[in-house]
Amino acid sequence: MQNYLFTSDIFKGSRYEKGHPLDMDRVWPSVELIELMGWVKEEQIIKNKPAEIEELIKFHDLEYVKALKKAEEELDLPEYLKRKYNIGIGNNPIFSEVFSRPASAAKASIKAVEMIANKQAKKILNISGGTHHGRKSEAYGFCFLNDCVLAILKAIELGFSKVLYVDIDAHHCDGVQDVFLNNEKVTIISIHEKNRWPQTGKLEENKINNIMNFPVSESFNDSEIDYVINNAVIPYAKSIQPDLLIIQAGADMLNGDPQSRISLSNNAYWRAIKDILLLCESSIILGGGGYNPYLTAKAWAGNWVLLNDRDYLLDSDMPEECSNLLSSLKWNNSRVRMGIPTQWLKSWRDHDVKTIVGAEVISLVKNVLSMKSL
Length: 374
Ligand SMILES: [Zn+2]
Description:
The chain has an 8-stranded parallel sheet with strand order 2-1-3-8-7-4-5-6, with helices on both faces. It has a single domain, classed as Arginase, Chain A. The protein has helices at residues 27-36, 53-56, 62-74, 79-85, 100-117, 147-157, 174-180, 222-240, 266-277, 293-307, 320-328, 342-346, 359-371, and strands at residues 4-7, 45-47, 123-126, 163-167, 186-193, 211-216, 244-248, 283-286. The two termini are 36 Å apart. It is globular. The longest helix has 19 residues, at 222-240. Helices cover 38% and strands 10% of the residues. It contains 13 helices and 8 strands. With 374 residues, it is an alpha/beta fold. The structure holds zinc ion. Zinc ion (ZN) is lined by residues 169-171, 250, 252, 259, 288-289.
């Protein structure tokens, strides 16, 4: 059985409106980095079409999905529909692929579960997935559909009984947690920055049976994510014995990302994912947040080698073709006004920074474990 890399042609040339945090490219550059490195065989890459409406309404409201399709067709919506569905308002702009793009990501996540259930694949990376804020009938937090929820629902439909969803995006996975509260077939673990939008995922929410949340402060460091993973996430997850693992691997906790204050190195990010992957043979890694195109493309390309248990490849130098691809990406952000930092373009791994586990994280882990009777 092979592992697969899921993507879609729609991501090349599709952008959110000018000035939006997603007015940049992340998905196709990740795939091209993987190809340039020779890390994938052509037959392992699967390009997905948009999901059918029938597939989307397993979670989303039909009228909402129709409105999203209409927004794409007409590049506009009547005011009352915009307000009703939060489409074309604030950070959820109408753009030319506003339906087809998230529907392609959703299709990929649904198909990933199907292929694993049918024993056609062992592990799958769907870089385009991870839209964890999407609501049943509302666009929310840049997310028009929720591929994470659709994937978990598909897993339950196909007979998985212990789905473990682990989310390391800087933002809490409110859209996923809300749907599966107290669902005994699903366990949701999230590490996220506290006091940050959407303001959910608080410590008290650990009282809910199947939910484990780590709201961490902006000083959260490399040693501390190791500590949380090894002392709480792994023991709790092992007690569940998952039959399917879904990792939302948002890259917005990395040092240099503009949408969080947390500054992890990619070494810590990859170590966390590697440790979590050991929990289950059947695994899907999704994307998610990640608003620095250089760091995000490297992080997600690296996830492909982790998935294939070849993380030593990340110790290699970055060839010039890869550095050139990264430096060609346009990013309208003050962090690169004076030029793109060499470190982002020339090597896979960040420099290791010496850190220690602070009292706040030790106490957080202790509190969470006691709330879970571990
Ligand atoms: Zn995020």
